[in-house]
Amino acid sequence: MTRKTDRGRAARNTGYFISLLILALLAGLPIAVWMDVSTLSQSSVKRQAEDMSSLITSIRSYYASNVVGRILAAHAAGSDIATVVTHDYANIPGAIPIPATLSLELGDVIRQQQANITYRFLSDLPFKRRAPHPLDAFETNALAALRADPKQTPTKINRSGFTNTFRLVTPVIMAEACVACHNAHPESPKTDWKVGDVRGIQEVIIKQPFAHTVFAFKYLLLYFLFMAGLGIGFIVFQQRQTALIQGVNRELESANEFLASISMKISRYLSPQVYKSIFSGQRDVVVQTERKRLTIFFSDIKDFTATTERLQPEALTQMLNEYLTEMSAIALKHGGTLDKFIGDAVLVFFGDPETNGAVEDAKACLRMAVDMQRRLGELKEKWRLDGTEEPFMVRMGINSGYCNVGNFGSSDRMDYTIIGAEANLAARLQSIAEGGKIVISYETYALVKDIVDATPLPPITMKGIHRQVVPYAVNGLLGADQNLRVLSEHFAGLDLHLDVAQLDPDERARVRAALAEAMAAIDAQAPSAS
């Protein structure tokens, strides 16, 4: 039960983990799209800033070379055309701005036309009558870096909320016309400019909200929403299925527990071998028999009717149940199939549903009978101590031969048992045995003669068997060296089970002394000769 519960808990945990994994994957998709869109936006504003800076640089270069340069060249050649080139061109009729002024005013125009684009033309060396240009840390560092290496292109990108801000700085390099103008201008803070010097920087700042870019992926978003709905639906369906399966599993566990309980109860009514073969599917529960060579054991309690009159019903019931329990355990230990209890009688057979061969089946049956008599001797001592003066005396019979074995009865009620004259012969051999003795047939004796010491009895005849049957009274089992014997004698006044092979030298001395004392007691009670 605990193992099933652990498996159910593990299955539920696995289901929860899969659900969380799916949710995480679904949640990760918009994050991935958002990151891609952000990267795309950053790349876009970077290209836009680079293009804008390049455009303004080209405009300023063109203006410096083809406008300002040409006018200054004409003045130098002595032309009397009065065209003034100054930063203060707005206050002088006919004047034109210098390139730096043009760049500043282009920045104002761009800023007015494009609210998200800012163009700044900055220098830490402005003309004397100009307001100083405020430079932040990035611009100051960029200017210093460009003066060290004008080939650099410092950039910076910031993200604030859903807006990317990209800043790109390029150098303002002094051309030949700019050097001549600046070095001669009275308001120039520096008069030793050289061609290629970095006078300042131009900066393009572009702010671009990238949230609206997401909607450019409308089909992807629709697909995502569809997949999200599908995934959530799948999770809900899985949870419902999991709950349903868990409910079914609980019902199955309950049903299995009930069936296990019923199965355990049924097993008490069947031989363990039969129970195992039925529940493992090896044997069908149908009316079917087959003919097999078996060794059949039959026993009953001698003078059981008289014993029942001497004992109280409660004591008799307790003794009988203890006796049958012990005999059943011994039969199972030796591999016998316990057929049934017939009142005080016990029917056991060897050879079906499992067999080790006719010889080994017969030997196992004989050893079982000897063990039963030994255990009965122990039980008798216990029963006598409990107050029973004359405990059970059991007679046993063993026969080997062919019987019909299988399921007998109807489709509604059947019994797994054996039928045949050989089974009846085992019962007849038991009936002629003395109390506490074992009688076997010649067929069984022929199979076990190498392990048994037995005495032949007068032949008997039996209805249904046309031959004379020669019974053998078992005196005991032989040891491995054929000289040692296992003696077993059980009758009124004597319970003896002697296995010489099991005795060590000290125990043999004690047994010899006990037997000598017993013989002396018997001799003392012998009737005197008249």
From TrEMBL:
<keyword id="KW-0812">Transmembrane</keyword>
<dbReference type="Pfam" id="PF00211">
    <property type="entry name" value="Guanylate_cyc"/>
</dbReference>
<feature type="transmembrane region" description="Helical">
    <location>
        <begin position="16"/>
        <end position="37"/>
    </location>
</feature>
<dbReference type="InterPro" id="IPR029787">
    <property type="entry name" value="Nucleotide_cyclase"/>
</dbReference>
<keyword id="KW-1133">Transmembrane helix</keyword>
<dbReference type="InterPro" id="IPR021796">
    <property type="entry name" value="Tll0287-like_dom"/>
</dbReference>
<dbReference type="GO" id="GO:0004016">
    <property type="term" value="F:adenylate cyclase activity"/>
</dbReference>
<keyword id="KW-0472">Membrane</keyword>
<dbReference type="Pfam" id="PF11845">
    <property type="entry name" value="Tll0287-like"/>
</dbReference>
<keyword id="KW-0614">Plasmid</keyword>
<feature type="transmembrane region" description="Helical">
    <location>
        <begin position="216"/>
        <end position="237"/>
    </location>
</feature>
<dbReference type="InterPro" id="IPR001054">
    <property type="entry name" value="A/G_cyclase"/>
</dbReference>
<dbReference type="GO" id="GO:0006171">
    <property type="term" value="P:cAMP biosynthetic process"/>
</dbReference>
<protein>
    <submittedName>
        <fullName>Adenylate/guanylate cyclase</fullName>
    </submittedName>
</protein>
<dbReference type="GO" id="GO:0035556">
    <property type="term" value="P:intracellular signal transduction"/>
</dbReference>
<dbReference type="InterPro" id="IPR050697">
    <property type="entry name" value="Adenylyl/Guanylyl_Cyclase_3/4"/>
</dbReference>
<feature type="domain" description="Guanylate cyclase">
    <location>
        <begin position="295"/>
        <end position="430"/>
    </location>
</feature>
